[in-house]
Amino acid sequence: xxxxxxxxxxxxxxLDVFKYYSEGEWKKSSSGKSVAIINPTTxxxxxxxxxxxxxxxxxxxxxxxxxxxxxxxxxxWKRAELLHKAASILKExxxxxxxxxxxxxxxxxxxxVTEVVRSGDLVSYCAEEGVRILxxxxxxxxxxxxxxxxxxxxxxxKIPLGVILAIPPFNYPVNLAVxxxxxxxxxxxxxxxxxxxxxxxxxxxxxxxxxxxxxxxxLISCVTGKGSEIGDFxxxxxxxxxxxxxxxxxxxxxxxxxxxxxxxxxxxxxxACIVLEDADLDLVAANIIKGxxxxxxxxxxxxxxxxxxxxxxxxxxEKVKAKVAKLTVGPPEDDCDITPVVSESSANFIExxxxxxxxxxxxxxQQYRRDGNLIWPLLLDNVxxxxxxxxxxxxxxxxxxxxxxxxxxxxxHCNASNFGLQGCVFTKDINxxxxxxxxxxxxxxxxxxAPARGPDHFxxxxxxxxxxxxxxxxxxxxxxxxxxxxxxxxxTPSYTMG
Length: 498
Fold this sequence. Notes:
Residues 26-485 form the Aldehyde dehydrogenase domain. By secondary structure, the chain is α/β, with parallel strands linked by helices.
């Protein structure tokens, strides 16, 4: 059960609230206040977490800074050893963490377990990759540049940035937290985690696994609370050396306020699926279902718009409709394909997009149905560019189909978006696929498969409003370090070697 057994110390049974993590200890906030976490399925309070104060954030930053100085001197193999231990503990306790994901964010049970196991694998891989890339330096000599003699030797290596602030999103609060935590720690940084409200309790359980692994006190902290109280205070804190954020529009606001520190941001997407006449339409339909409706479409890499050639559109729409009809709809505990979206405000936003599409003449392939936060899967055909759903990200199980008359039309729609995270193209002609990939202004283009973030060591990045910098284990380790060089100056030789 959540908050019991090995996780008992993270829960205050008297106040029915989860504690926050600072200086290697589980603490109650001096604010005496808590933040309620609403179960998307029942729409009732499921958990409560501490509402931390700005003073507590200051204390966390102070201890993170001093802990980092010692951690940076810890041998690389020892850092990796602790990460492997944390990964093992995380996977061992996958069930209670998955239970939190089911209750907090309505993630289907099997997907919740998969997220925790994937997170453990990510931590282990990161430990190995960190040892490999951080164990190497570079040696340069001066006579490779015109006009210089061999009188300078330059030694360069990667050193940590300091305190990393990690802010993951609600939809993958464990996986997208460890994708920031593990690279930060292997690189010698300390880490302050601000989890999303929906997903906080799963994140606190995950942090406890790192606590049980025996990391030094103060190296990892986890503060919970209202964004209005500690959000800007955290992101603008002078103690922060780097921010890794995954989420939506908030990231753009953070980037404008953060100052001169490295930023790693993965924001929204309107991932386009371009379907050519020669595509395998059964393959396309299967990937549209997987890409558009997995976790009720609440994924940044979900297929968000289908751009299909008119000549095959009718056939494709019929194939997708048949598959939509087979999707199960209901509570996450029953492992349904479509579960409630995360909040009432999210459901209301999705409904607004649907109403706009209806007014403007989109073809509804299913009847629109909603019960509280639960929205039945909906395919909208004959969507036009004047409809909001053509451009805005629903983050729900509603997918627009736009019929196109040329590949250029599809590319133009894709590139006219404010977003540029991922996209995909379906065709049997690899030459066409490569040309279209080159023309699509997105961070990643998948050929004959739906967009996806993993495997977690692949580079992952977006253009325009979809983000700054690149993720993936290797890229994250690299961006959470900086280059330090030492130059040895030799005396100028007074003679020529014979």
